[in-house]
Design goal:
This protein is of the alpha/beta class. The protein has two domains: about 160 residues, 3-Layer(aba) Sandwich (Rossmann fold); about 230 residues, Dehydroquinate synthase-like, alpha domain, CATH 1.20.1090. It is built from 17 helices and eight strands. The strands form two sheets. The chain has a six-stranded parallel sheet, sandwiched between helices. The chain has a two-stranded antiparallel ribbon with strand order 6-7. Strand 6 and strand 7 form a beta hairpin. Helix 7 packs antiparallel against helix 8 and helix 10 crosses helix 15. The structure holds fe (ii) ion. Fe (ii) ion (FE2) binds next to helix 7 and helix 11.
Length: about 425
């Protein structure tokens, strides 16, 4: 095969700092928007955050119509509802305010309003039609209120497909927001358990992308258009991911222990964005592939700290539970990269590391922020392994950048090891 020799770097323009979200209207005016669709979820609206952003937008003389029905875990139906609203509204700009679900729904609403078509046409193959975006979208502003998904920095929108017990994504460089506004003040009211789950997602994004299969181990694409958005580890992604690992190790415990610790909150918010740039380039792999069936197969877990109206597994919990077993398995692919990740997470030199060093540090972090001990605590047992393996192996786009090949037996072993991490 001919090896890849090229990697690309793109990053969303980001505005960061306490109070940065007060500049939302100014940013939209700069981008030329006159009538925008503001997408948010009921929790963020109830916290008063969406209303404050809306005031700032209207203060610039921009018309602002609220769409308040973003799903916590977006599905085709919830994306469609937002897309229909966008098609009917005659908008020339879009604003997502909330967690990854609000930002991803805003991306899809903008996509359908700009280019039309059916949502599934745009979803990555083989699940969807894999159609490529022909031209840029209308101005899109992404304002995260959690320190987690990094969606403000990525080119991806993820949706759950409950019938297929899987998740799928739309990914294309034109799905990138025109501007992200990252304001730590917006996370102040976030409960400790939500802060923990979001922060563990950040740590997974960062570590997964840092140890991902190198971009130049992949086969070269036939045309530039076929170069995958998840390219594999590269020197530039390493800078962003590495810094995010360090912030996760240094600040997540503090942000969970004291929600008013704005230095820690700010660092986690910035860490989420930096990890978004890193994994948006290099990609996530085995823990995220496993997380999709973990979060869609069963509805048996009522997460503390979240609204108690329906059971679900928070995304960050669904990724972190297999991380220790995964990085134990992938260690041999690149011991030096795993050692370096462990060192960044620990915040101190670790000259000698073995396959257990990084996993032990991750488990310490999980315990310290109150994460459940493994898949069993989420309602799974050995009888579920087969279905979980099947769902994991469907995530081919993610597994393509795994540092070590995984087949059904390896995934099953990882899942069994992750039933009880302690
Ligand atoms: Fe994630």
């Amino acid at each position: 095969m001919t090896r890849e020799t090229v990697f690309t770097l793109e990053a969303t323009p980001i505005k960061y700092g306490p109070g940065a979200s007060t500049e939302a209207g100014w940013e939209l005016a700069r981008l030329g928007a006159r009538r925008v669709m503001l997408l948010s979820d009921p929790g963020v609206i109830a916290a008063g955050i969406t209303g404050r952003v809306r005031d700032r937008i209207e203060g610039e003389g921009i018309e602002c119509v609220l769409f308040d029905r973003v799903g916590v875990e977006p599905t085709l139906e919830s994306f469609q509802e937002a897309a229909d609203f966008a098609l009917d509204g005659g908008f020339d700009g879009f604003v997502g305010v909330g967690g990854g679900s609000s930002l991803d729904t805003a991306k899809v609403a903008d996509l359908i309003a700009t280019h039309g078509g059916e949502i599934m046409e745009w979803v990555n193959a083989p699940v969807g039609g894999g159609r490529k975006l022909p031209a840029p979208l209308k101005p899109l502003l992404a304002i995260p209120t959690t320190a987690g998904t990094g969606s403000e920095a990525t080119t991806v929108a993820v949706l759950a497909l409950p019938e297929e017990r899987a998740k799928a994504g739309i990914s294309h460089r034109y799905l990138r927001a025109h501007q992200g506004i990252v304001d730590p003040e917006l996370t102040r009211s976030m409960p400790a358990e939500v802060t923990a789950a979001c922060g563990l997602d950040v740590v997974c994004h960062a570590v997964e992308s840092f140890v991902a299969r190198p971009f130049d181990a992949r086969e070269a694409p036939a045309t530039p258009d076929e170069r995958p958005p998840y390219q594999g580890a590269n020197p530039v992604a390493d800078i962003w991911s590495g810094q995010a690992i360090e912030y996760g190790g240094r600040y997540l415990r503090r942000a969970v222990a004291d929600g008013d610790d704005m230095e820690a909150r700010g660092a986690m918010m910035l860490g989420a964005t930096m990890a978004g740039v890193g994994f948006g380039s290099a990609g996530t792999h085995i823990p995220h592939a496993c997380s999709y069936p973990v979060s869609t197969l069963k509805q048996a877990y009522q997460p503390p700290g979240y609204p108690d109206d329906h059971p679900f597994v928070p995304h960050g919990i669904s990724v972190i539970v297999t991380s220790a077993a995964v990085f134990r398995y992938t260690f041999s692919a690149d011991p030096e990269k795993h050692r370096r990740a462990a060192e960044l997470l620990a915040g101190e030199p670790i000259p000698e590391a073995d396959e257990n060093t990084l996993p032990e540090l991750l488990l310490d972090l999980m315990r310290d922020v109150g994460a459940p001990s493994g898949l069993r605590a989420l309602g799974f047992d050995e009888g579920d392994v087969e279905a979980l393996v099947e769902g994991t192996l469907k995530q081919r786009r993610l597994l393509a950048v795994a540092p070590r090949e995984v087949g059904p037996n390896e995934v099953a072993a990882i899942l069994r090891e992750s039933m009880e991490n302690w």
